Amino acid sequence: MPTQRKMRSLHLNIPQSFNNPILSHFTFTTMASVLACIVALLCVKRGKASPTTNTRSCVEIEVPVSIDTTAIKWLQPRVDSNVDAVDWVTYQTTWTSPNMTDSMNGTITVKQTFKINGQLCVPPNGSSRSGILQLASHGGGFDKRYWDAEVKSKEYSYVDAALAEGYSILTYDRLGTGRSDKPNAYDVIQLNVQVEILRQLTSLARSGKLVSASKRLSGSRDDRLAKYKPSKIVHVGHSLGSILSVGLITKYPTESDGIVATGFLHTNIPLPGLNVATWGFEFARQNNHVLFKDHGSGFLVQATKSNVQLSFLKKGSFEPALLDYAWKIRQPIAVGEFKSLLTAFGTKGAKFKGPVHLVIGENDYGNCGGDCKGTYDLNMIKTQIYPAAKDVAVHIQPKTGHGLTLSTNATAGYKASFDFLHKSGL
Ligand SMILES: *[C@@H]1O[C@H](CO)[C@@H](O)[C@H](O)[C@H]1NC(C)=O
Ligand SMILES: *[C@@H]1O[C@H](CO)[C@@H](O)[C@H](O)[C@H]1NC(C)=O
Ligand SMILES: *[C@@H]1O[C@H](CO)[C@@H](O)[C@H](O)[C@H]1NC(C)=O
Ligand SMILES: *[C@@H]1O[C@H](CO)[C@@H](O)[C@H](O)[C@H]1NC(C)=O
To answer: Whose C-alpha lies nearest to ligand 3, atom 14?
Structure first.
């Protein structure tokens, strides 16, 4: 089976519980997505809560998120320099290195409160969909600015597009990125922890206390933000953020009303993006000690703009200004996230009853080896991965790479997801 062969060659072997071919498939793809997303973005001068306009109603908040869960003690080399970073990549891809199961050396309790930086925006008054909240999780390699391009925002900003469609939207910096906390990159920043954070953000938002329970940093005084209480929550993800969103409905099938998983597909081919060697990683702080001064041991970042292009963009479907933007907003990823990629999944995802939209760029390199045509079986995805889902569809965005929001024709892709959601009353 290709996935097994690939797994072995990459030393990302899955544990026995994932030996089911469907799950192998699933986790494999997911992993690819994750890796595919792993490029970083942060920035020298972080934008304000509303980078693109002062007319929209947004507030930037610091959300206290308390979690109590377990993480895994992984056996892996430490990364405290560029030499270590290359050694780490070599270790992950050396065929005789321990597989995933053999890399686990016990569990660790993570009982902590993290500061998570978020941006909540509500559409203009009178929108019929303002009660539907899109909760967007960005992928590896970036922070929440992935969703909200400050360059040509009309053509690229997902936040603007969602607001124009009448949705409310919450974006946040994944733990370890942007303005969120950056705890231990080995033992704390892992998939299970990120899924719990997403769950807590979801619960807080549903309770109507998201803003009142948080520290308000900047943005609009619109009263609707302080009191915002959604009636429905759709989880939107990109790459690693899609893995987290699917991880959420896997563990907590009733906590979401709909999933839009972008840069994500359950494929049946070997995935180049799973090979961490394609990412061109360096130790974040050594790569740029100004941008990544808060990122300590164990944080990796793509070394060059060309590395970012390889992972996220396809020649012919991106403007140079957007590659510049991607490079500017790059963010580190924690080694603990790589090691734990497969642990976000189990068998319960099958119970999710909402609609699932899977969106992938036709030329996604990390997920499809550069060409997604013929790499997946929609019937298998529907019947075996999301058997209880109300509706499942795959949208292939033409001539586009992994970085969907950074590619030309991006808004036409957003529209495809919005239209899909509307069919389910979302
Ligand atoms: C991991 O490797 C060990 C041998 O070191 C083997 O017994 C085990 O089956 C492997 N696990 C998987 C999931 O391949
Ligand atoms: C596994 O963890 C234990 C402590 O819990 C430690 O003594 C041991 O050295 C670790 N194993 C390896 C291979 O590092
Ligand atoms: C939106 O409506 C609220 C009351 O329903 C009002 O206070 C606020 O000024 C309105 N905002 C805009 C931009 O019209
Ligand atoms: C833009 O995207 C839409 C939606 O996927 C698609 O129908 C259209 O063909 C695309 N346009 C180009 C020029 O690729």
So the answer is: 125
